[in-house]
Amino acid sequence: MKVKEKAKSFFYLFIILVVIWLMLTSSFKFQKLLSGIVISLILAFAANWYYLKLGFPPFTPKRIIYFVIYLGVLFVQIVKANLDVAYRVIHPKMPIRPGIVTIETTLKQDLAKLMLANSITLTPGTFTLDVLNNHLLVHWINVKTEETSEATKKIGMRFEKFLKVIFE
């Protein structure tokens, strides 16, 4: 990786950490600001070095924006899934059709696949059982399709499109 890419990644991480510091302290007093800058520099250096050492792509504004959007989408999906599961629990006939389906992913990096699997598991009603190469075995509380491509669209694509930009 080029020195320029490492420096950009460090800079973006440093800015993110300073913004987080400012949000947490809600203060622009010189001592607090200086402390935040020093702590952010140390953390950015350590975290960026470790992050890049593991072979992950460098921080860029596009990746950071997509990550924030991804967190929003994940939150919305968790809320929707919670409401769906609650409906199924309180419905007198408990309309469930549990089963295990296979979904396919085009993600290459293991961390990206891990985040996809965890995102699926965090949404109630689905649980990732295993990751086998480019396939994920998912327990689904209400199987709507057993076809891999359709299950992929319904379960995995809502997260994968963001993770693909973030990690590749």
Explain what you see.
The chain is mostly helical. 65% of the residues lie in helices and 11% in strands. The protein has 5 helices and 3 strands; from the N terminus they run αααβαββα. Strands 1-3-2 form a 3-stranded antiparallel β-sheet. It starts with a helix and ends with a helix. The mean pLDDT is 89.
Output the keywords.
3-stranded antiparallel sheet; 168 residues; 5 helices; mainly alpha; elongated; 3 strands
Structural topology:
Blueprint: H1 3-25, H2 30-53, H3 61-90, E1 99-104, H4 110-122, E2 126-132, E3 135-140, H5 148-167
Antiparallel strand pairs: 1-3, 2-3
Helix pairs in contact: 1-2, 3-5, 4-5
- What shape does the CA trace take? elongated
Helical amount: 55-70%
Strand content: 5-15%
For the biggest sheet, the summary is:
3 strands, antiparallel
Mean pLDDT: 89
What's the gist of this structure?
The chain has 168 residues and is mostly helical. The protein is built from 5 helices and 3 strands, in the order αααβαββα.
